[in-house]
Amino acid sequence: MEEALLKLKHHFLETVDITDEEWKYISSHFTFKRLKKHQFLIQEGMNVPHEFWIVKGLVKSYFLEESGKEYILQFALENYWVSDFHAYQNHGISTLNIDCLEDAEFLVMSFDDREKMCVEVPALANFFRIKSTKGYISLQQRVMGLMKDSAEKRFNDLVEKLPNLVQRVPKKYIASYLGVSRETLSRFSK
Length: 190
Prior knowledge:
With 190 residues, this protein is an alpha+beta fold.
């Protein structure tokens, strides 16, 4: 866990300044979790009292419609924060599934601990504000891309933004994320 915490400290320091004393306080609020490929971090219908920082591995966040069709909202890999944020923020029940696509390691923080830490360490509140804003911008760009861009452009944008993702994720999941069939994806992903 110590190595994971050092990575997290570096992650925070890329965005905000925190003192060693603040870091000691912050790091005491995280626990370590390890999951195998295909294990769920979150399943639809669960309470979601935690947010997760990915130390190692790759997950997909998705929901299923009644017919069983899967809609992938996000791939998250090392240095990403992941949760069902609606359920997390509102102390509600998850409407999403988050499934490990690889063996994965996480640092886990509860909602209550996050709120307490943000009061005690204002730099941490600033960090989460910056990360939330960047996440919102990314989501906004993704939605706009789904509305206006061709599937090929969406694929090329994904490859540009996350070049190694295509090697780590099965093509059927990439197709689902892009909102296209596997056959359509194969036409421009060669």
